[in-house]
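haha ok so turns out i had the wrong file open the whole time. this is the CORRECT one, sorry everyone. sequence first:
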Amino acid sequence: MSEVTTARRRRAAADAGPPEPIMRSVVNRVHAAMGATFERRGAWAVPAHYTSPDQEAAALGSSLGFADISARGKIHLSGVVDPLVRSLVGASIEPLATAQIPTGGLVARLGRDWALAVLPPSSEASAMSKVAPMDSGAVMATDVTSALSTFLVGGPRLDDLLARTLTLDTSHLKPGRCLAATWAKIPAVLLIRDLPQPAVELYVGSDHGRYAWETLRGRAGTPVGWRALESWGWRP
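then structure:
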């Protein structure tokens, strides 16, 4: 390569500015070892598919599939959370219920003084700018996107999986509900989703992310990429 060509490439790179960072799940290398094809969602590299989206969507419809959706933005709300909740969804939410955010995502009201906003990838900064002015000694909003690993499990066999991994009665876990519980012996937040088949999103500490994924691999059937999830009707 000539010095002139090298200089031109350096100038072009400088004009383009620094590359956008790529965010990766804590189990990204496991996905790669499983043969995943990746694509971009916001600043994140997510598994698009492992085999084919059609086969993976079929597993969600007939048995059980599981997916890494850690790219979702996440904001922890604590204290007197009602003003923050209303600013995001336009109304109050009763404890243990969820509500949609008009611009995308949802808020889970896990208790009187605790809620979790979950958002499309890389939209947490915009949401934080909306709630940050209300942050005070009585209420706090914290970006916990990288602190939580998130997995979706869905399909007709979901109740069997939950019965084997939760130490509580699952009969009341209806779409639109949420709770904090011990799942597979680790602390987790569960959001029950309204999708064509029973589905739950699991939020666990990132230090438990690989353990949670391996637990799902051993018990939950077929790994599923984002394309199959989106064709199935899921939206981040």
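The mean pLDDT is 89.
again sry for the mixup
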